Amino acid sequence: MFSGIDEVDWASLRYADGSAQDLPGLLRALASADPAERGSALDGMYGAVHHRGDVHDAALACVPFLLSLAVREEVPDRAGVVELLVSIGDPGGDGGELAARARAALRARAEVFVRLAADTDSGVRRVVPGALVRFLDGPARVLTLLRERILVERDDRVLTALAEALGLFVRRYGHAAPARPSRRRRFRRGVDHGAEAVRLLEALSGPPYGPALRLAALGQLAGCAPERLPSDLVPVAVGLLRERSGRRAATGCACGGPGPETLAGRLRRLRPSDEEGSRLLRTLHAGLGSRVADRAELLCGQLTSPDPLDRCNGVWMAAGFVREWRDGHERPVALIGAQLGSAEDRLHDAAVTVLAELHALAAPAADRLHALVTSRPEYRTRHGERGTPALGGALKALAAAGDARAVPVLADVLAGPVVPHELGRVVPHLGRAAAPLAPALRRRLARVPLDGACVHEQAVPLLSALGALGDVPSLPSVLRLLRGMPQRTRGRDAVMDAALRALGAFGGGAREAIPDLRALLGGSAAVAAAEALWQVSGDADAVVPTLLREAAGPGRDRRRRAAAVLARLGSAARPALPVLRRMAGSGDPADRAPAACAVWRTTGEPDEVLPVLRALWTGHPHTRPEIAGCAAALGPGGAPLHDLLRAELTSPRRHRADLAGSRALHEDLVLLRLCGQALEGGG
Question: Does residue 416 lie within any of the structural domains?
Fold first, then answer.
């Protein structure tokens, strides 16, 4: 199987990390009797020949040897080799010339996949159908092979893969629909083959086939032929999910038992242990796309399943749904909250993790969160990644939802020996309801050692919280940090920035700090100091030269922040207009947005920057919160942008739904709030 491997000039070939001279060793290791060696070799091959989706010239040299490995029955784990071949031949996107050559090489040897379609190894049979659709020429032959395999296959997982291959086939060749051209023209385009594949999927989606196969077929129909879905899709899908779960053999506590509360342990528990079920439902959700009502109903069916694995998968899918769509989340979120009472660690942890990312949208689960943190003190804090205390996810979720019931619980946490670093992030969500926390926060800040190794971890959350509360009585403690921290203190810049933001939030109550702020106008914290000085003193003449210098400087973050501060100065920022206009016309959208807003707010005339702001709004969605904030600050003067704001408020999809994580969701909630404020203030 390795004939000729030593005749290849591997040293002259390249992959992601350089020369490919180590690839012969990896190829040979794929045939090793040692499972660990095979696994390591397969990982190494992915990193070498298909790193981050890129196909390198070394991949072409590997294809013949990988194909030889795939057909040798004595080689273990051949399914992984076939998956690697599919990955090389279909890396996603265009992939460039090398990817095209790799596809051509696999098409030229596609008869190997025909042979493997009937392999004795079900794992191999499971990955081959997708290869047939991708690499075997002739749609009629491909469809015949898939149909034949469906008739004789008995392994449910392979049948599911065959259904997925039919969906891929339809997406590749299309399918007949009403109001199409003549039959002869459709046949020339190969569309009739796709129509036959759709008919096969329709047949597979009904009795007498098993629930997993029927779910797989429904998911593929949703993605490639939604008009062929049954009218009662959601009840059918939920019923199939429960039938499938009922057939699954009981294996004890499938959601993960108790174990040490470590980061690795939590991550293991958060991974889905029913990956097939997760994939089936994710495919169906993806196919349903913008059918928000159906997807919300499907999620409710998942989250009320008798099987905790179904509910666990539903929790994670609900998180993705809420991050992408603005409606339909209230009942699914409430049902996520219902999982907090589960005895299954995996399900409980998944619910806590997701709710902690939802901010205000976690409100339907607030009663459950409150009950958990009041009855179970161990859920108030946990150990962070480096062993430092962190807010427990349930308490963080309750506070981030803006629920005032979090305040007494946070007060108890503050009475402990160490303040969790997330505390400063959640207090702003509570608004004035968190005012009772101010004395304790103030006392903790006064005790932070100026030269301590952990001054950053201790001070920044306290400063953020006190700034959010506008707690002027904490001014002496803030100034103590600002004046007394040694220059080489670890994290000093972050502490300085948090301290300056707090002083700015105190406004005129921090006038005692004016000399300190003036002294910082020439250093690395110049923009933050200028912003705070303006907020405290209102003296535009004192800060414009500094902001003008920084706006014209090389530091990207300082430049953008300087432009944002200049915008708030209004007409007092006129000396900076030449610099702001240059920024507004630059190529970097992150520069253009704050600068264009500053020009508008300085001159009061929208005409020169309106085209820029409209283009940024459409082409660079991450600039929308800043632009909406500008319109809100202008009140009735922001009317030229009101059509964009109204359209945003009626859009069902979040403006950065392509991003993962809670930051994008929080940004969208801020955007919606700013759009509402701008329209309300503008009449």
Answer: no
Query: Which 8-state DSSP code applies to residue 453?
Result: T
CATH code of the domain covering residue 189: 1.25.10.10
Contact 556, 550 (CB under 8 A): no
Is the same domain home to 234 and 177? no
Question: Cα torsion for 128, 131, 135, 139, to the nearest 10°?
Answer: 80
Say if 170 falls within a structural domain: yes
Residues 239 and 206 in one domain: no
Q: Residue 327: inside a domain, yes or no?
A: yes
- Minimal CA–CA distance to 534: which of 560, 562, 557? 562
Q: Does residue 283 sit in the same domain as residue 368?
A: yes
Domain count for the chain, please give it: 2
Residue 120 forms part of a structural domain: yes
Strand, helix or coil for residue 156: helix
Last residue of a domain, one of 362, 385, 401: 401
Taking only the tens place, the pLDDT of each residue in 176-200 is 654 444 444 444 444 579 999 999 9
Q: Give CA angle at 62 (56, 66), nearest 5°.
A: 135
Domain span holding position 305: 230-244+261-377+393-401
Q: What is the mean pLDDT of each run of 10 residues along the chain (683 residues)?
A: 83 73 90 92 81 73 92 93 90 70 92 96 96 95 96 94 97 69 45 88 95 97 96 97 83 42 44 80 96 98 96 96 95 97 91 94 96 89 71 93 96 85 86 95 92 85 94 97 89 94 97 97 95 96 96 91 95 95 89 95 94 96 95 94 97 86 87 96 70
Asked whether residue 22 falls in the same domain as residue 166, the answer is yes
Q: What is the pLDDT of residues 88-107, one digit of tens each?
A: 888 665 567 878 888 999 99
Taking the CA atoms of 110, 115, 119 and 125 in sequence, report the sign of the dihedral they define: positive
Contacts of residue 630, defined as CB under 8 A and 6 or more positions apart, other chains included, come to 567, 597, 600, 601, 613, 638, 641
DSSP string, 277-335: HHHHHHHHHHHHTT-HHHHHHHHHHHHT-SSHHHHHHHHHHHHHHHHHBSSS-HHHHHH
C-alpha triplet 431, 381, 253: angle, nearest 5°: 120
Q: 596-630 pLDDT, tens per residue?
A: 999 999 999 999 999 999 999 999 999 999 999 99
